[in-house]
Amino acid sequence: MRHLKLETAADGFATLILDNADESMNVVSDAFIADMEEATKAIAADESIKGVILTSAKKAFMAGADLKQLVQGYGTLSKKEAFAFSQRATAMHRAIEQSGKPWVAAINGLALGGGFELALACHYSILVDDTKAVVGLPEVNVGLLPGSGGTVRLGLIAGAKIALDLLLSGRSVGPAEALKLKIVDEVAPADALIDRARAWLATSPDPVKRWDVKGWMPPQKKGMTVPEDSMGYMMAAGSLALKGYNSPAPQAILSSVFEGLQLPFDKALAVEGKYFARLLTDPIARNIIRTTFISKQAAEKGARRPAGVPKSEVKKVGVLGAGMMGAGIAYVSANAGIEVVLLDRDVPTAEKGKAYSSKVLGKLIEKGKIAQDKADTLLARITPTDDFALLEGVDLIVEAVFEDTGIKAETTRKAEVVIPSSAVFASNTSTLPISQLAKASQRPDQFIGIHFFSPVDRMGLVEVIMGKQTGKEALARALDYIAQLRKTPIVVNDSRGFYTSRVFQMLIHEGAAMLAEGVPAAVIENAAKAVGMPVGPLALLDELTVDLPLKIVDQAIAEEGDRYTPPAGTAVMRRMKDEIKRPSRKAGGGFYDYPEGGKKHLWKELAEHFPVKAGWDIEELKQRFLYAQAMETARCLEEGVLETVEDADLGSIYGWGFPSWTGGTISYIDTVGIETFVAHADSLAQKYGPRFLPSPWLRDKAAKGESFYPGSEPAPIEELVTA
Fold this sequence. Notes:
about 725 residues; alpha/beta; eight-stranded mixed β-sheet; six-stranded mixed β-sheet; about 10% strand
């Protein structure tokens, strides 16, 4: 057996050790299942073995399925084949349960997905008392459900309410909560884990699960005739609708638990397998897994890092500007063990920036997530100052001063007098062209854009922008710095708004344009949230302020004149700022009112300024939001702003919250199918203007039947707006 080790002992208690020969983590794969089948068969047949301790040689017990294998199966697996795939793993677990020998899972680290399903199939489970040792079934997060008994066993062990909470949230729980929820049987210190397992086996436990005892009846065999059960499922169904899920996975999980608690055990497993097969062959699961797991992991491992450049490490970074962005960059850098010089116009301002780190750490201390001494050490790495001389010896500069070309140029010149000639200079600008800012530098080949997202300590994406003269060494060193911060990079080329800011603006402008057309503000917000956007465009504008998108528009007009067409929502934003005098939440109110001590709500007088008209179609509004952003992303690819579809999808999901069920803006086009996308875009262009008009390049791809991702097949439905 390649991925397992079986050790026998004189007391008759064998130890089966999970030890993936090819990966640092144990995962469920065809090879692993084959080994488990062989081991279980051998254990059942060996009369000298009286019981089994199942544990791991890795730091973790076991993660879930090999997601790469699942993605590769999309488009090639039929539902019947996907069901068979699920049932093989299910049969593996049933073989453990029905082996005639008691099995105890000694869970020495995290056990998630298929790993926790394996533990649930054992007759007893002991979880190591370690904060990193979490257990759970997070499959909903990748558009799937547990496919080898997870929904059925968890429902029977913990009850429907707890099972649905864990399955629908996808959250993992630590030892104390797992024990409280009764999803593990015992918690033990690491040095006592195996001894406790052996002690349990020494009690000669019954190796028959209760659902295998003759006469066992499903706990909810009366189905919806029991008022308490009926009410529980109705509330759960209502909760799904309230959360606006666009993936079919939550509904499938609810149905699987509901049916599983009413059916004979093996029939329940078969039903779960059918739901799993349906989800696995759906493009939504493929989209989510491909972008949020495979592409994300590849980016973090250096997929875009230039070859041939030695690995670098930032030991000292200079952060210029101690405002909200600079303060956040200083915190994440110090948290990564990097010495930080936080510079602003005066020391009190710089100290205010450092105070942000104190605030973040204070909250973490309250929650018990960091000790006071470690927090003090982190804070000591940040030096607030107004003295450029302290930048001596830095490996990297991250400039985060006010979005003004002149101010940035002056800051660049002052810093370059002091910093080493080898240092990389990065600007955190979100809109100003990097090639233009690099004109102030004496070393344009070492000048690059590193665009963080706010709040920096919670947003994982970083957009790296290559100027016209940026060298590959600067890119490699920027990516090495981002890797130190444990964030996810995408790499784009220079243009107005780069990629994320440019496409994000399509969302807010589309929302503003709808308001001008007479669509009720509440309908606009709800249409955006219905497709999976986390926040409506009008609420986003209030937080962003209309000043910022208007500044971008005015700058473009100044530079391009009549060649530039202002975005569709510009007129509404100008009215909100200049005529109505409600530019933002910060200014006291915008599209929403923000009563002190109360909940925000749409401004009641909004309809007086933007009268509501009849004739809008909610499905078309939803389509407009998705198409506007996807079309602009396609233009970024065509123009060379984006070089890879993976960067496009990662940037859209992690940069501004494009719905994860789509897999990202480009995956969305592929899922719809380029030919269908172009046809629908033409229809929208006729109604709403050239922003929806496909380019000849995109039309050519449609005519050739091409896709952006190799082998991508469009969804087998006429139109995909929501799933």
